[in-house]
Amino acid sequence: MATDFEFYAVLSIIVAHFIEREERTGFYRAAYDRLKQGGFFVSTEIAFDLDSPAFPAMLEN
């Protein structure tokens, strides 16, 4: 991420699950640090057991 810019909004759409668990706190901190005061952080992730046998059916629905 650029370090010399501030943003009104940061969108993290299906990103964090690609980041190693140990590095996620740093990812979220870096996003927060780049928000303008009063800015918005929007994050969406897949909240499902990716190893579950039911996962493929969940994607289809």
Write the layout of secondary structure elements.
Blueprint: E1 7-13, H1 21-33, E2 35-44, H2 55-60
Parallel strand pairs: 1-2
How would you describe what is shown here?
- This protein is an alpha+beta fold and 61 residues long.
- The chain has helices spanning 21-33, 55-60, and strands spanning 7-13, 35-44.
- It has one domain (7-60).
- The chain has a two-stranded parallel ribbon.
- It is elongated.
- 0% of the residues are buried.
Condensed summary:
The protein is an alpha+beta fold and 61 residues long. It contains 2 helices and 2 strands, in the order βαβα. InterPro entries: SAM-dependent_MTases_sf.
Task: Label this structure with key terms.
single chain, 61 residues, alpha+beta, two-stranded parallel sheet, 2 strands, 31% helix, 28% strand
Number of helices: 2
Outline the low-pLDDT stretches.
none
Structural class: alpha+beta
User: How many domains comprise the coordinates?
Assistant: 1
The SSE string, one letter per element, is: EHEH
Name the helicity range. 25-40%
Radius of gyration: 15 Å
Count of β-strands: 2
Q: Which of globular, elongated, flat, extended, rod-shaped describes the shape?
A: elongated
Average pLDDT level: 88
Biggest β-sheet description: 2 strands, parallel
Residue share in β-strands: 25-35%
Spatial ordering of strands, largest sheet: 1-2
Distance between the termini: 34 Å
